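Recap quiz, item 2
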Amino acid sequence: MQITVTVNGTEHVREVEPRLLLVHLLRDELGLTGTHWGCDTSNCGACVVWMDGTPVKSCTVLAAMASGRHVRTVEGLEGHAGLDQVQRSFIRCHGLQCGFCTPGMLMTARWLLDHNPDPSETEIREAIAGQTCRCTGYENIVRSIRHAARAEKSRDGAA
Amino acid sequence: MQVPAHFEYQRATSVDHAIALLTRYGAEARVVAGGHSLIPMMKLRLAQPEMLIDINDLHELGGIRVEGGELRIGAMARHSELLGSAVAGEHYPMLHDAERVIADPVVRNRGTIGGSVCQADPSEDLSGAFTALRATAVIRGAEGVRSVPMRAFFTGPYQTVVGPAEILAELRIPVRPGGGSAYVKVDRRAGDWAVAAAAAALWLEPGPGPGTITDVGLGLTAVGAAGFTAVAAEEFLRGRPATEETFAEAGRIAAEHCRPVADQRGPADYKRHLAGELTVRTLRRAAARARARGQEA
């Protein structure tokens, strides 16, 4: 079947099998390997992308279901001004070790800060509850997201 | 790599269109909404539909509102919408208690209320909650619309009264003043399926003491309770004072009437213990909420 999916602002038309999963469309058909394919059971959250502005686990969404919708992946975080603040804060606070969970963490973190610019540590931990860091580096992930919140607050305050 | 077997895919443009597709393709067709139960089952070949009918565009099945003295929850409402619904939380805080412990926020963005209820997993949280609340399921089919009480909705594990060419459209819960409700769950880790859980909705006649229970609904999850509830415990509670002694006896009755099965989540004795203890805790919390609302009024 033919699908039309807009990914990071670019429209893609592809002929796919209905059983193709969104994560494999992104990685194998579109070459966007930033989105990671982890547990395949919607538990680990490595595959989180946004669909129509909402984080979803792309291993449990069919590519066909994304047709006509807007998808944002980790490749779409970077803007004209360079890396997104959450990316900069993950670098600054060592929010990753092996990096496998990072794309999903970044997408959820960006969504959280867009909806709650000053989240508490508890709110951050709840937001990433569906995402597994196999290095168990949660302390630094939470710290990174707090850092991004503070950095955006002081920048907005200065503007 | 887990990939479903081959199937055909169509996107429904209206509920009538979806029903027409279901009628045409019969037992080989399945409806997909959030897909967070069905797609994993398809990957494991536990489900192998030949035609998948995507109902994500059917906004007529969405929304959460109070209308006609009822809280109406569209079948396509996502878990995150129910958790975020102020009107649902105001009338039935039990629904927010339950939603907070269903899976995780990203899964809740996608999974739907109707999908969860129709999956009818014995460990699913909302089945017990809606049973306690005596919700009504509104089901649409080619013949028209029918309403089925939640207590007649489930016909067995993973089975409901929704026919092969029907769609669950909405859940309706009567809005009644003077009540409190709660849901309490024990799970092995955050977001997991329940080892056991209990729901209670309770209405109090205020008195000088703890108040008298005028009506009550109980729900029990994952403990083999007939119809996700404990009718004998409900009958015991009605008309009695809302005291710790009353709740303890109700818990004992609920535990006695459930039939838990030992599995990787725990042995049967432990689950039976939880059924009793969680019934007590959820009644206690529901009564406290009912009293707090009585004082506000």
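Chain A has a mean pLDDT of 96.
The interface with chain B takes residues 1, 17-19, 21, 40-42, 45, 48, 54-57, 60-62, 64-65, 67, 108, 126-127, 129-131 of chain A (CB under 8 Å).
End of item.
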